[in-house]
């Protein structure tokens, strides 16, 4: 038994796919921006400002640099092996099956938790939009149980419904998905630019002093939560998660060797500029300590401070659209990861089933869509969002290390794009990832270790025996075949 058996580049590329190739550079860039710009601007800037002060813009830049170096590594892998699966497939190529499975298992949790977490924020903005029109949902149906202190809530109905609607769009075809995403991202960008143009005139430079009240990293008396630029970067790193999902669209992309690297890097660059400009303006309009008064809706609080009440309705709409695209891309990426793992035999065949008409992994899309909707509807998972960060950072480390290994072991493999300044680029990526991981609290490490342990149980209990690589020269590996093999009745 070889736990580290690998796929070759030829094996990955030659695997036939029934998925439909329709994505171009513009679509991939919109997909990346759709995943990146959302919760970061409309929700996390509040907590980030309280953690770093006006230096939040530096925290965003630090997180962006980490993602930028990792993005260069993703771009090289995507051009070398343009297949579904993102970091899972790249780990299979560089380090073998066990590492690939763990990363795939990690990404499934990442995408599901982020989509469920964002659905809670989406629900909050949706309820505020309804209130603007004099409409009110029963308070018990506005959030999961225990989400709002002092208020009795049981079920996040708006979040549950939006996740199911997104799942339906994803299940009926990639053309419908990309058109929906492209339109929503363009509207979102227009609203963000409108916010910048309207609020920049209210900036008071005195609010930027002191610029970095907590320095690089510090603990406040009586607090277990670290403060400063690095801890804030660890928090807002959540904002950039999603560009890696772009690489999972490889088998639905036209000319992926060239378009995937462009889509990944363009979406990161555009999003970083917008984040930095937004945080400069927000902390310039409102003193950073006042974000405690509207930590869950920081953009709305900034608008309230300017007196531009008419802008609030428009920005609420932008927040809804922004978070919708984030959920769409995360659920899309999750279904493609599961599709790739199922095709390799590491997950049940159910998740690899492709609908004849829609040419999407239909069953797997609905399975995880329903689970995510239920999680966001009933469970207070806001305390778990940092698990998304540590999971993504772990995937970035594996992909960056994979570039170092592949350059050494397969220097002549075809690469449509080469990350510059190797080995420095992947090494810097790894260092930045470890710095951001260090900014997370110890509870996150414990939860991640538990999920990691569950993944090992699934691999050794199910996936190892059903791996297609384990049975490369054997009959097709179905559940019936594995049962027969265990009984010693195969021929």
TrEMBL record:
UniProt keywords, alphabetically: Membrane, Transmembrane, Transmembrane helix, Transport
InterPro entries (UniProt xref): AA/rel_permease1
Subcellular location field: Membrane
GO CC terms: membrane
Listed Pfam families: AA_permease_2
Membrane topology: Multi-pass membrane protein
Bilayer-crossing regions: 28-50, 56-75, 87-108, 154-173, 185-204, 224-243, 264-288, 308-333, 364-381, 387-407, 419-439, 445-462
Keyword hit for Secreted: no
Source organism superkingdom: Bacteria
Principal location listed in the UniProt entry: membrane
Keyword Aminoacyl-tRNA synthetase applies: no
Molecular function GO terms recorded: amino acid transmembrane transporter activity
Protein name: Amino acid permease
Source organism of this protein record: Bifidobacterium felsineum
């Amino acid at each position: 038994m070889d736990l580290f058996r690998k796929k070759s580049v030829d094996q990955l590329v030659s695997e036939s796919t029934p998925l439909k190739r329709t994505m171009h550079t513009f679509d991939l860039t919109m997909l990346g921006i759709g995943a990146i710009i959302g919760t970061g601007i409309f929700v996390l800037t509040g907590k980030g400002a309280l953690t770093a002060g006006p230096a939040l813009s530096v925290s965003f830049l630090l997180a962006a640099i980490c993602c930028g170096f990792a993005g260069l590594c993703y771009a090289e892998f995507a051009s070398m092996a343009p297949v579904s699966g993102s970091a899972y497939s790249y780990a299979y190529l560089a380090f073998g099956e066990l590492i690939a499975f763990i990363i795939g298992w990690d990404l499934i949790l990442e995408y599901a938790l982020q989509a469920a977490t964002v659905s809670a924020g989406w629900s909050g903005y949706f309820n505020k939009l309804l209130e603007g029109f004099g409409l009110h949902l029963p308070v018990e149906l506005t959030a999961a149980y225990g989400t709002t202190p002092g208020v009795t809530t049981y079920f996040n109905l708006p979040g549950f419904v939006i996740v199911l609607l997104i799942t339906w769009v994803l299940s009926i075809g990639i053309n419908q998905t990309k058109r929906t995403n492209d339109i929503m991202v363009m509207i979102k960008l227009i609203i963000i630019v409108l916010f910048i143009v309207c609020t920049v005139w209210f900036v008071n430079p005195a609010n930027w002093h002191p610029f970095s009240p907590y320095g690089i990293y510090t603990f406040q008396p009586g607090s277990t939560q670290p403060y400063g630029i690095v801890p804030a970067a660890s928090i807002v790193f959540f904002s950039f998660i999603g560009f890696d999902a772009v690489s999972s669209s490889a088998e639905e992309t036209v000319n992926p060797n060239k378009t995937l690297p462009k889509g990944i890097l363009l979406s990161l660059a555009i999003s970083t500029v917008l984040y930095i400009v937004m945080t400069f303006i927000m902390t310039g309009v409102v003193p950073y300590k006042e974000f405690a008064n509207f930590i869950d809706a920081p953009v709305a609080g900034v608008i309230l401070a300017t007196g531009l009440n008419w802008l609030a309705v428009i920005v609420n709409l932008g927040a809804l659209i922004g978070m919708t695209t984030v959920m769409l891309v995360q659920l899309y990426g999750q279904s493609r990861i599961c599709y790739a793992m199922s095709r390799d035999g590491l997950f049940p065949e159910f998740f690899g089933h492709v609908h004849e008409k829609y040419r999407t992994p239909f069953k797997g899309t609905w399975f995880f869509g329903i689970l995510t909707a239920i999680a966001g509807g009933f469970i207070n998972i806001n305390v778990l969002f940092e698990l998304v960060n540590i999971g993504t950072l772990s995937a970035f480390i594996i992909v960056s290390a994979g570039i170092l290994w592949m350059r050494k072991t397969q220097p002549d493999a075809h690469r449509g794009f080469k990350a510059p300044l190797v080995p420095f680029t992947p090494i810097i990526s790894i260092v930045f990832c470890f710095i951001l991981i260090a900014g997370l609290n110890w509870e996150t490490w414990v939860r991640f270790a538990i999920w990691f342990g569950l993944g090992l149980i699934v691999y050794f209990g199910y996936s190892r025996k059903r791996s297609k690589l384990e049975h490369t020269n054997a009959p097709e590996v179905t559940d019936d075949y594995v049962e027969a093999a265990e009984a010693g009745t195969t021929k």
